[in-house]
Amino acid sequence: MSTKVMNIIKNRNIWAVLAILCLAFLIRINTFWIPHWQGDQSQYLSLALKLDTFGFTEYNLRGINIQYFSPKGDTDICIIFPVIAKDKDSTGVILTALEGAGGRRYDTPLYHLPPAFPYAIMLSHKIFTQKNTPYLSIESNKKITRNHVLFKTQFYSVIVPLFFDIGMILCTFFIGKTLYNNRVGLYASLMLTLNAVNILSSQRLWADTMLSFFVTLSILLFVLSMNQKRQLLFIFLSGISAGIAILCKQTAGFYVFAIISFIIITNEKWYTLLTGLIIALLTGSFITKEPFFFFMLDNTSFLLFFYVISFFRIKEEKDVFNLKNIRYVFDKKLLVFVIPIILVTGFWFLSMFTQTGDALFLPKQSANKFILTKDIKLWNNILFERPEGRFLYFIGIPIIFPLFFFAYISIKDFLYNLIQTLTKKNSDHRFIILWLIILFFFYNLGNNREHRLMLPTYSCFAILSAYMLDKFQCWSGKFSSQIIVSQKSRTLIVWIFFIICAIWSIKIGLQTTLSNALLIKVPF
Q: C-alpha angle 73/76/81, rounded to 5°?
C-alpha cells in the first residue's frame, strides 16, 4: 500500500467520523418502516409525482387522487400513494381534503414553496425504483413491522432526508475542524447525531433537512474561502449552495443575508456598509411592495445592528466619503457570491412573479378559523398555546439537548471577536459568520413555533457548544496540575455529559418519531 493510503487507515479522526455517521444512521434506521404520509409529507410526494408527470408547468396540488392497499391482507399496514386524476379539470382528493380542513391557500396555479425537495424525491424515485412504479408510502404500521417489503416500498423517499441529515453532520465536522480543531469538529458532529430535532426531521419527508444541509454546506465553503488560494471559487460554490437552499425554503434568505452582511462588514471602506444598507433597503422595499418607511420599521433589528457596526468602522477610518468610492459596494467577493444565487433561483422567483405579481408571494389562510376541522383546530391550538418562537427556541433548544447550553456561554467570546473584527485589520473573525446566522434568524421568526424550523441553526449551536466544551477540557487540564486529576478523568467528565444528553435527547426524538407525531412537545 502507498504511504497516503496507510496514513488514511491510521488516521483516528477518519474512523471517529465514520463511527459517528454510522451511529447517526443506526439511530434513524426506523425511518424505513414507519409511516410517511401525515401532514406536509403527503404534499411533497404529490408534488414529486406532478413534477415527474408534467414538469414544472404543473407544479401544484390540483388533480391528485390517492389509492390504498395492504400487503398480503395485513390490516395493520396500509400502503398509500398519489395518482393523477383522469379528469383534467378535477380538483382531486388531496386539494378537496385540504380545503375541507380550511386549507384553501393550497389551491394555487403555482405551489407557494420552492421545488427543490420535491425534485430531490423525484430524482431519487427515478434512481431507486423501476419505471412506472407509483410514489408509494406507508400510511400506517401499527406494529412497526420490519420487513423487506416495507423497506423497498419507501426507500426512494426516506433516503432523501436521511442522506441530507447525515451530510449536514459531516459538513458540521469540517466547519468545526476548519475554524478550531478536530476535537471541536467531532464533538459538534456527535451533538447533531444525538439531537432530538435532527432525529425527528431526518425521519420525516420535510424540506428542512435538505435546507439545513445546503445552508451548512454554503457556510463550510465560505469558511474555506477565507484561508484558500482559490478564494473566489469557494465563494462561488458557496453561492450555488445558498441558492439551492433558497429553492428548498425561502427562509434560507436569512442566512444569505448573514453572509452578505459579513462581506460588507469586512470591506475596507466603512461607508460601503451604509451605501449597501440603503441599496438593500430600497431593493427590499421594491420587492415586497412596502413603502420604504414601513419596510424600515419592519426591519429595525437589521438597522440597529448595522448602525452599531458602522460606529466601530467609522472610529477606525479617516477617509472622507467620496462618491467615487461607491464602487466598493460592488465588492468582487459580494458579486461572486450573489450572482450564482440569482442564476440558481431566478427561474423560481420569475415564475412566482409572473403568476402572482409578487416574487416573494406567500398565501395567507383565507378560511374562517371557526370552520376549520377538529384536527386543524387542535393543531393550531397546540402551536399558539406555546410561547413566541424567540422564547420557545431560546429555552427549548438547550432543554431538548442540554449540551447546547454551552453555546450561550460563548457570548463573551463572540462579542470580543465581533469588536476585534470591526476594529482591526486581518483579525480573527471565526465567530462572526456563525453568530450572524443565529442573530438574523432569531429576529425574523415571527409566529413560528416548531423546533424543526430552527434546524439550519443547529450546526451553529453544535460548533459553539463544542468549542466551549473543548475550552472546558483545556481549563480542566491546567486546573488538574494543582489537584492531580488524570487525563482519563477529564475525558470521562466530558463523556458523562454526552451520555446523559444522549439518553435524554435520543429518547425524546425516538418517542416523537415512533408515535408518528410531527411536533416535539418538550418543553412546551
A: 75
